[in-house]
Amino acid sequence: MSMGHEKDREGAQRMDRVAKTTFAPVYPVIAEQILDRCGISRGRCLDVGSGPGSLGIALARASDLAVTLLDSSPDMLETAEGNIREAGLSGRLSLLRGDVHAIPLPAGSVDLVVSRGSVFFWEDLARAFSEIYRVLAPGGKTYVGGGFGNAELRDSITATMTRENPDWKSFRDKNLGPDNRARIAGVLADLGHCHRIINDDSGLWVMMEKGE
């Protein structure tokens, strides 16, 4: 195994550990918010930058959605595959290797696109949001951004993570702060797609909708 591959695998394992411990309460809360705010509980869902699959698994548990986990990392997808199997949801979730800037799916093929946390790492926001809009089916919606679901979880997780890394809160504030919100809003305004931005205790989320 190359050093680079070993590093990628260690990164996937580390993210999986955090998702199953400190962040574990977040995913069911966000999944319920997605279902409530988007009003889509069946059809095909794409989780972009899915990592170990925590959000996609929570959505599959709470709905009738068929969920596809999209990630560019083979190690993340391998970790997600194990998590799907452990959850007993192998028939409900599938894996797809790819990048948000060139999603390997046909136009109009997805009813719901979700993502938690990956948007802050996208190299080209305009291209990424254009690709997401392209794969949306008519009437399809997105719930893309970052957050913790509510203030209580946000504060609890921040306290835990800051004890481990004193710089973590500044990283969180940068991602969810006004500058990033303005940058995302500017890109969406230029694209002209129907959208709204949620910025409250649940986090910073982009909801786009494709017309019928």
TrEMBL record:
Superkingdom as given in the UniProt entry: Archaea
EC number: 2.1.1.197
Assigned keywords, A-Z: Methyltransferase, Transferase
Location of the Methyltransferase type domain: 46-143
Top enzyme class: transferase
Molecular function per GO: malonyl-CoA methyltransferase activity; S-adenosylmethionine-dependent methyltransferase activity
A Pfam family: Methyltransf_11
BP term (GO), one: methylation
UniProt-listed CDD domains: AdoMet_MTases
Classification via InterPro entries: Methyltransf_11, SAM-dependent_MTases_sf
SUPFAM superfamilies linked to this entry: S-adenosyl-L-methionine-dependent methyltransferases
Protein name: Methyltransferase type 11
Source lineage: Archaea, Methanobacteriati, Methanobacteriota, Stenosarchaea group, Methanomicrobia
